């Protein structure tokens, strides 16, 4: 075990510590770091829930009678469960053009995004984000964030354990929820998921294309609005075209 713990410290370039300098709680943290390599999927989902709860506490969440909440509730009324996964939806009343979904089935939509998208376009974007959850991209991203967090604990923790994450640790994970970047293949698969979601529920699949085109325009407009969703979702124009091509093949547009 000593050998493995030392390897961890060396491999990640942390300050040089000999094993003898480590106190028992640091050793425990080291063990937890190693255990994180075998984190169960359920644990990852629980940590995702913790991170979202912290995000909710730190952002202006629209109340139940807020027009934004009422609009969102209307849009998703038929989609409280998607592909067998119960989803909880909330609006953050911030101007950023963004939305995200997490492994525990939380979907958060930002006011700035709602202001520029039609109802169907919002469904298309939420469908894409939910696609990342159903395809386990979100869980895998959280798992690697937890591994990085646990590794940091080896150097920083004086109290031991990852069982209940500290506020700052959860905050770091929350940042990761927003900054998660997926591979091109994962993005295409999430796009396909959204397309299928729209099609099977009788919505116009072109909403997926037009939502991407709006994002691309926002970004090119230089109007100063931060289009965060684009930094993790590049190539909006190409992806819109891919949707249009598929819709044409499917006979859904001419
Ligand atoms: Zn995506």
UniProtKB/TrEMBL annotation:
Cofactor(s) the protein requires to work: Zn(2+)
Cofactor comment text: Binds 1 zinc ion per subunit.
Family matches, as InterPro entries: Mito/Outer_Membr_Metalloprot, Peptidase_M48
CDD domains in UniProt: M48C_loiP_like (cd07334)
Peptidase M48 domain span: 70-246
Signal sequence annotation: 1-20
Phosphoprotein in keyword set: no
The keyword 4Fe-4S appears for this protein: no
Bias (Basic and acidic residues): 234-254
Region of interest (Disordered), ranges: 223-254
Keywords, in A-Z order: Hydrolase, Metal-binding, Metalloprotease, Protease, Signal, Zinc
Family of the protein in this entry: Belongs to the peptidase M48 family.
Protein name: M48 family metallopeptidase
Species this chain originates from: Spirosoma liriopis
Lineage of source species: Bacteria, Pseudomonadati, Bacteroidota, Cytophagia, Cytophagales
């Amino acid at each position: 075990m000593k050998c493995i713990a030392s390897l961890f410290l060396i491999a990640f370039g942390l300050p040089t510590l000999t094993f003898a300098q480590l106190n028992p709680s640091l050793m425990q943290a080291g063990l937890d770091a190693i255990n994180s390599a075998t984190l169960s999927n359920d644990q990852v989902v629980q940590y995702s829930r913790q991170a979202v709860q912290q995000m909710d506490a730190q952002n202006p969440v629209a109340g139940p009678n807020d027009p934004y909440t009422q609009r969102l509730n209307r849009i998703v009324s038929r989609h409280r469960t998607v592909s067998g996964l119960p989803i909880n939806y909330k609006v953050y009343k911030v101007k950023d053009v963004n939305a995200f979904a997490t492994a525990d089935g939380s979907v958060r939509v930002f006011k700035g995004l709602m202001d520029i998208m039609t109802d169907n376009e919002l469904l298309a974007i939420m469908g894409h984000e939910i696609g990342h959850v159903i395809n386990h991209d979100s869980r895998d991203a959280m798992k690697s964030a937890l591994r990085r967090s646990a590794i940091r604990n080896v150097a920083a923790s004086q109290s031991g354990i990852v069982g209940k994450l500290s506020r700052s640790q959860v905050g770091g994970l929350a940042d990761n929820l927003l900054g998660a970047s997926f591979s091109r293949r994962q993005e295409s698969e999430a796009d396909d998921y959204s397309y299928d979601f729209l099609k099977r529920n009788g919505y116009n699949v072109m909403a997926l294309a037009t939502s991407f085109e709006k994002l691309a325009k926002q970004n090119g407009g230089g109007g100063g609005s931060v289009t965060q969703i684009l930094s993790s979702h590049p190539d909006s124009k190409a992806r819109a075209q891919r949707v249009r091509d598929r819709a044409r093949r499917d006979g859904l547009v001419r």
